Amino acid sequence: MAAVLFGLSTPLAKPLVAGAPPVLVAGLLYLGSGLGLFAWRRVRRAPAVRLSGTSWGWLAAAVGCGGLLAPPLLLAGLTGLAAAPASLLLNAEAVFTALIAWVVFRENVDTRVALGFAAIVAGGLVLAWPGGSAGSVAVGPTLLVLAACALWALDNNLTRRVAEVDATWLAMVKGLAAGGTNTALALAGGARTGPVASVAVTLLIGLFCYGVSLSLFVVALRHLGVARTGAYFSTAPFVGSVAAVVLWSEPVTWRLLVAGSLMALGVWLHLTERHEHRHRHEALTHDHLHDHADGHHDHEHPPGTPPGPHRHRHTHTPVVHSHPHYPDLHHRHRHGHGSPGGDGPVGA
Asked: Which residue among 104, 116, 149, 323 has its CA within the 20 to 30 Å range from the CA of 237?
């Protein structure tokens, strides 16, 4: 769902940048996300969130990369590209995200995940490959979109460091901080917001395509890790290209059909992945939303603790076991040569 909502953002934003500066549109989109989630949290009376000093640093860096810089770059590129190719270029975000996760944060990737990821990227390349002068892609706008993808990839990996925090709170903070800043900068530079109805539509698109999408994305980061979440999220460009065909009557070509098949194959490979090996959990104390049915939260509670998913500060004792898992909050261990399946070496 996060990929679907984000995929819709590009074709929906295409007409918005025709009548307003990209920085203003980006600001209003993220401001809509922040304001909408702020209202949602107030209605639900969501508890306050507390971050450590280090976590605030990770969050600030993520807001800067993914909220302040990336959206204006994408929308600036969108002024020189049609919605479909611009959507498809967003496949680069998954590439950059996975590269950072694998190289910097050492997430494990087995052959099945790599093949699935390659299939998804291949689908994007089929659609984006120039087909003569009529199908050529402008270099300048393309580079702007790719720069936005690189910044969002950094954002994805930085957000993982605080992914255990309430997802709606994270998305709200990003929206208010980045949206408020970019909107203020645009207005200070002389930009005009236009009719109230247009502003309202922009805010609403931002709420769902950025706010709700980001909240779901953070939840996925928590449970799947960065590389796998990025791979699933790379279906968003395909959603965007299909939406562009439906909304703006862009032609359906053989490229679209071939790319769709490749992306579907890639998603299937990821969904059917099974990563299991013997690994060690070191002692860990933290605070996040959890459920005791997952096999990693066998601790006592004070009287009156509600059943089902809940959050509080708790401690995990050291344990060595084997079961299917993803590189989530509780599985950030190193892998040996035999780890993708069976009883490989115990990770640290």
From this structure: 104
